[in-house]
Design brief:
This protein is α/β, with parallel strands linked by helices. Helices cover 54% and strands 14% of the residues. It has a 5-stranded parallel sheet with strand order 1-5-4-2-3. The protein has a 5-stranded parallel sheet with strand order 7-8-6-11-12. The protein has a two-stranded antiparallel sheet with strand order 9-10. The longest helix is centred in the C-terminal third of the chain and has 21 residues.
């Protein structure tokens, strides 16, 4: 018999995680680390669902069996290839017929199966509950180009807890934020990834999160985390404009020039048509310093406007000409004084 697990047990259980929902359902959102292992393809799922609504459950079950039967041997073969230890975890949408049918088949073929009680729907409830768990936050602020992400990982390297929202959003949070990164996940998948990471962080220790707008590209920071971020104390990185431009040239200098031009054109109305023209010409000539200086004027104003709306404790930390290790030490000293 398959082992029935609640969400925490299921996530911690051994074995590869197989999602038996349709490819479209999987693409909309899935448990991080899961492998798409659909009982029905998209068309078959729609066909069976229509049959259920128009004819009834018995006819839908018979139609489903008719569609699945020719694929049973392939399912077993694929599962054995994926599960070298002969252990699998299975789920569908509600923990119903799709996962239970697949569990019966794979157990019959000699595999050990764990089933998620309540299916992916239960996991999504767990996501919302996990995101709502209160934990102490310090916001790492600073204008564009202050190297916040590198500093964040410098903090992680010495044992501080971090949550890198941009990592899960596949975006750096500006018009240029998607360049060189994979496509952004769906909102649902973004929440899933963030919830898994958030749940693993200890509530007894502070968590560093880079200051973000409500949206990171197309992904919206979950309210359960964004609202506490708004009220969290800010340690703001202060770096000279020259250092910031140098950092941005390093980060974006190897990217495709046409992509940089497209991203610049996208904010033409914000930086002004003449500024856009000069910036684009500079990019074409390989003069990124000039282009970045123009764009920074806009992003600095935007950052300062957002900062002024937050009525929270703010300390500016001067890191000019400091190494990452020195910056990290300085930030930790400031954080200890905050007693977060």
């Amino acid at each position: 018999m398959p082992i029935a697990c609640d969400v925490p047990e299921f996530l911690a259980a051994p074995g590869i995680l197989l999602d038996t929902r349709s490819p479209a359902e999987f693409a909309a959102g899935h448990i991080p680390g899961a492998v798409s292992f659909p009982l029905f393809d998209n068309a078959e799922r729609a066909e069976v669902g229509t049959c259920y609504k128009q004819v009834g459950a018995e006819a839908a079950i018979e139609l489903g069996l008719e569609r699945v039967a020719p694929k049973m041997v392939k399912f077993v073969q694929q599962a054995k290839q994926l599960a070298g230890d002969r252990q699998v975890r299975l789920h569908c949408w509600r923990g119903g017929m799709r996962s239970s049918s697949m569990a019966w088949l794979l157990e019959t073929a000699g595999l050990k199966v764990a089933l998620l009680t309540g299916g992916y729907k239960a996991f999504r409830r767990w996501v919302r509950a996990s995101l709502a768990e209160p934990k102490p936050i310090i916001t790492l602020g600073g204008m564009t180009g202050t190297g916040k992400t590198e500093i964040l990982y410098g903090l992680a390297a010495v044992g501080e807890q971090i949550l890198d929202l941009e990592k899960y959003a596949h975006h750096r949070g500006s018009s240029y934020g998607a360049l060189g990164l994979p496509p952004q996940p769906s909102q649902e998948q973004f929440e899933n990834e963030v919830a898994i990471a958030w749940r693993q962080l200890e509530a007894s220790r502070r968590i560093w999160i880079e200051a973000e707008s409500r949206r990171i590209g197309l992904c919206r920071v979950p309210d359960e985390i964004f609202q506490p971020m708004l009220s969290a104390p800010i340690l703001q990185i202060d770096r000279s404009r020259a250092e910031r431009i140098a950092i941005l040239v390093k980060d974006y200098g190897k990217l495709d020039r046409q992509e940089l031009i497209t991203a610049t054109t996208r904010i033409s109305k914000r930086i002004g048509g003449q500024n856009e023209k000069v910036a684009v010409e500079a990019i074409q000539q390989g003069d990124l310093e000039t282009a970045i200086a123009i764009v920074l004027d806009y992003y600095d104003k935007t950052y300062l406007y957002d900062l002024q709306r937050r009525n929270v404790s703010l300390q500016t930390v001067d890191v000019n000409r400091l190494t990452i290790d020195a910056i990290v030490d300085k930030l930790i000293d400031h954080a200890n004084q905050l007693k977060v």
